[in-house]
Structures are given as C-alpha cells and as structure tokens.
C-alpha cells in the first residue's frame, strides 16, 4: 500500500516518535510511506469560495503548501493523521490540511489511522471526534487509533505497539 502520514506537529518530538514507530513497522511490511510535515507548512483555511467546484474543476484558488498535500489525497491507499493536542483539538495546521480536501471532495484512501500525543490525559476527545467524523463522511475505514499522553510519550513499549500495528495493516 501507499501510505501518506500527515504530521500536524511543528516539533520533532512526541508525535514524531509515534510516526517513526508507525513508519518503521509499515516499511518492514513492505508498504511505501511518505510523511507530509503539514505542521511546518503554510496551509491556509478553506475560503469557501467554491472556485474548486466551478471554474477550478477540482483545483484550489489558493496557491500555498496544500499543493504538496493534494497528490496524497489523490493517490494514497491509506492516510495516517498524526497530531499533538492543542487546546483539546488537533493542531490548526493539520485541521487546515484535512479541510482543504474539499476541492476534490474526498480522498481516494480506503483506510486511515490516528496518532495523538498530549501532555495531560483525557484531553483528546476533540481529535478523536474530528477523525471519526472524517472517516464516516469520507467512507474511509478506521484501521486503528493510538493516544499517548504525559509519561507515555516516548515510552518504548507503547511505541512498539504502534510499530506492531503498522506491520499488520
Ligand atoms: C499550543 C499548545 C497547546 C497545547 N494544548 C494542550 C492541551 O489542550 N492538552 C494537553 O494535554 N496538552 C496540550 N499541549 C501539550 C502537547 O499536546 C504535548 O506536549 C504533545 O506531546 C506535543 O507533541 P509534539 O512533541 O509532537 O509537539 C499543548 C501544547 C501546545 C504547544
């Protein structure tokens, strides 16, 4: 499978450790993995101008880093959304990258997974709700979700669970 991971974190720390574990497992199983560092990209929110659904014919009027993400929505078999919790939600960067898929309607991917990292426990209801809604709306199968918080971040046993999951997609 071709797997695209959207990394919503601007830092190379806790979310990155989850992504590395997932990517290691997936590559070991022979999958092709691409990480899109949307947390460090300049991606604006959707302007709801509807250019994409008219004259634009599936292209967005905004010329920004979303152009680097769109090919993954058109070709990846699996999407992995990886994000730290920022104020009880996904980061604004990954939210923008997810919402801008509006120009083509839905990704072609058949499977998805969610990786979430936070400082405190029980703060990830927002990212989980957004992800579940996104999967339901797009018809993408939720293959699995992982949530590490506080001391669990960077925990080798927890990361091994993610690695193992990615080996058996
Ligand atoms: C702007 C900002 C907002 C945050 N909001 C929350 C929050 O609402 N709940 C929480 O538990 N942690 C919160 N955190 C902590 C991060 O979710 C946590 O440190 C996470 O592990 C960071 O992942 P990273 O290393 O990939 O950046 C916040 C951090 C930042 C920078």
Give the key terms.
Rossmann fold; 21% strand; 5-stranded parallel sheet; binds flavin mononucleotide; 5 helices; alpha/beta
Structure explained in plain terms:
The chain is α/β, with parallel strands linked by helices and 169 residues long. It has one domain: Rossmann fold, CATH 3.40.50. Helix content is 35%, strand content 21%. The chain has five helices and five strands; from the N terminus they run βαβαβαβαβα. The chain has helices at residues 14-28, 66-75, 92-99, 125-138, 156-167, and strands at 2-7, 32-36, 78-84, 111-118, 141-149. The protein has a five-stranded parallel beta sheet, with helices on both faces. Helix 1 links the parallel strand 1 and strand 2. Helix 1 (14-28) runs parallel beside helix 5 (156-167). The mean pLDDT is 98. The structure holds flavin mononucleotide. The site of flavin mononucleotide (FMN) has 17 residues, from helix 1 and strand 4. Flavin mononucleotide (FMN) binds next to helix 1 and strand 4.
Set out the fold topology.
Layout: E1 2-7, H1 14-28, E2 32-36, H2 66-75, E3 78-84, H3 92-99, E4 111-118, H4 125-138, E5 141-149, H5 156-167
Parallel strand pairs: 1-2, 1-3, 3-4, 4-5
Helix pairs in contact: 1-5
The structure holds flavin mononucleotide.
The site of flavin mononucleotide has 17 residues, from helix 1 and strand 4.
């Amino acid at each position: 499978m071709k797997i695209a991971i959207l990394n919503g974190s601007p830092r190379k720390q806790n979310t990155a450790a989850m992504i590395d574990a997932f990517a290691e497992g997936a590559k070991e199983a022979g999958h092709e993995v691409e990480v899109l560092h949307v947390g460090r990209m300049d991606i604006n929110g959707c302007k709801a101008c509807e250019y994409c659904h008219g004259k634009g014919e599936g292209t967005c009027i905004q010329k920004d880093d979303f152009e680097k993400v769109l090919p993954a929505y058109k070709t990846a078999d699996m999407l992995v959304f990886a994000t730290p919790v920022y104020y009880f939600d996904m980061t604004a960067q990954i939210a923008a990258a997810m919402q801008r898929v509006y120009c083509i309607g839905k990704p072609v991917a058949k499977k998805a997974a969610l990786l979430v990292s936070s400082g405190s426990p029980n703060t990830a209801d927002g990212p989980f709700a957004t992800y579940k809604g996104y999967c339901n709306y797009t018809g993408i199968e939720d293959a699995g979700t992982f949530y590490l918080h506080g001391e669990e971040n960077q925990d080798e046993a927890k990361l091994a669970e993610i690695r193992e999951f990615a080996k058996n997609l």
